[in-house]
Structures are given as C-alpha cells and as structure tokens.
Amino acid sequence: MIKVPGDTYGAGQTLQAANQQVSALNASGSVAFPALVTGSPARQMVTDSSIIASVGDLVDGGTMTITSISTTEVPGINDAGTVVYRASTNLGNGFIFAGQDAILGTGTIVDGILLSGGVQYAINNSGQIAIRVVYNTGSGIVLATPAHLVPAPGAFGLAVLPMFGVMARRGRR
C-alpha cells in the first residue's frame, strides 16, 4: 500500500478517504488519485506524497477557484510527477488542469472553435497533454504543450492561455 486512511501529508493533514478505483500510476511508482484529507470538507487531487489541488484553491495564477474535483475520472501522471485531472471552477465546468494550471476548458477557443470542455485526457513524459474536447458541432483532439513543463526551446503552436501553446487536431463526428 502506498497511502491508506490515517497516513499524513504533513502540517497536520491526514488522509481520510481515497478513491483508489480512479488512480493513475507512473513508472517511478508515484500514484495520483482523488481523496479527502482532514481540514477540508471537499475533495483534493493528491499523489502518494503531496496534495496537488483542493476545492477552494485559487488556481491558474489567481484567475479562478476550484469548486469541485472529479472523483469518477482517472487522473494522469507522468514520470516527472505532473498530475493532470478534471475540475470545475467558478468560471465553468470541464476544465483540465496540470497541477495548479488550467490547460483548457469551457470557453477556450482553439482554431476558431469555442470549446464546451475536455472529456478525456492523458499526459506523456514530454509534458504534452492530449485532450478529447467537445464543441457545438462535434468533438476532436487537442494536443497542449504547457511551456513551463517542456525543456528548451519551449512551447509551440497557437497561444490559447497564458504560458501555453496548443496544436489542434480536430475531426468531426
């Protein structure tokens, strides 16, 4: 067992409950999963060693607040320990986060298309995040490369959110 109820995260925070049915594992043996930790009545996204995000956190450079974290969708974690997960915010539902940074979500415009959210996602060891997105006439795949997760020379593609480059591949269904 990596983390069980009663284990601590430091600063008096104790794991109360975890949803191991929706956990992700990387090659280093780190695990990411939604959990309930003392000191908060709502869910957090955690790893076996740290709390990544909590409901109520001010995230994305202070531009939004997390209002809920998905407890039914499997997060992603790469070998560097970057955790990708879905959360709702005060600005809308369906946001995909990498740590405390919003990658895309409701209202993001990619290639001239207004997205209604991301529904499935995965992260690779280069820090690229593939996201299946939904929009008013179909769905498609967006490849996001957060600039701060990529070794030099940096991000590529169309700047969609501050610090992020996105290259879109879309198909209609």
Folded structure, characterized:
With 173 residues, this protein is mainly β. It has one domain. The chain has no helices and 18 strands. The protein has strands at 8-10, 13-18, 24-25, 31-37, 44-47, 51-54, 58-59, 64-69, 76-77, 83-89, 92-98, 101-104, 109-110, 113-123, 129-135, 138-146, 158-159, 164-171. Strands 1, 2, 3, 4, 5 and 6 form a 6-stranded antiparallel beta sheet that branches. Strands 7, 8, 9, 10, 11 and 12 form a 6-stranded antiparallel beta sheet that branches. Residues 150-173 have low confidence and may be disordered.
Largest sheet: 6 strands, antiparallel
Mean pLDDT: 79
Number of helices in the DSSP assignment: 0
Total beta-strand segments: 18
Q: What is the helix fraction of residues, given as a range?
A: under 10%
Please identify the structural class as seen in this structure.
mainly beta
Strand content: over 45%
Can you tell me the residue ranges where pLDDT is under 50 for at least 5 consecutive residues? 150-173
The radius of gyration computed from the alpha-carbon positions, rounded to a whole number of angstroms, is: 16 Å
Order of helices and strands: EEEEEEEEEEEEEEEEEE
For the structure shown, list the relevant keywords.
single chain, 173 residues, mainly beta, six-stranded antiparallel β-sheet, globular
In short:
With 173 residues, the protein is mainly β. It has strands spanning 8-10, 13-18, 24-25, 31-37, 44-47, 51-54, 58-59, 64-69, 76-77, 83-89, 92-98, 101-104, 109-110, 113-123, 129-135, 138-146, 158-159, 164-171. A hairpin with a 5-residue loop joins strand 3 (24-25) and strand 4 (31-37).
